[in-house]
Automatic annotation (TrEMBL):
Keywords: Plasmid
Protein name per Swiss-Prot or TrEMBL: Uncharacterized protein
Species for this entry: Aquibium oceanicum
Length: 83
């Protein structure tokens, strides 16, 4: 799985990580670690239940303090890297 930080940010805010993991063939923990390490904000626990029940939710913006939005993240079975 290879994408920019911006694409990863959009992806994790569009569907639950378990679903992303199932579709991409990597573990959800690897996606979560990549997000945390590359400073990509991800939804907190309960976010998807709120969405499902029509409650108000806030999507966090992508911070570009340490990494650029265009930096490429690679996530595979061994973990993740950023370039």
């Amino acid at each position: 799985m290879k994408m920019t930080r911006e694409q990863l940010h959009d992806l994790v805010w569009s569907m639950p990580m378990t679903e992303i993991a199932r579709k991409s063939g990597v573990r959800d923990q690897h996606i979560a670690r990549a997000c945390d390490g590359a400073e990509v904000a991800r939804p907190r626990a309960g976010y998807w239940q709120k969405v499902e029940h029509g409650k108000s939710v806030t999507r966090m913006a992508l911070a570009n303090d340490r990494y650029a939005a265009s930096d490429v993240i690679t996530i595979d079975a061994s973990g993740w890297t950023i370039s």
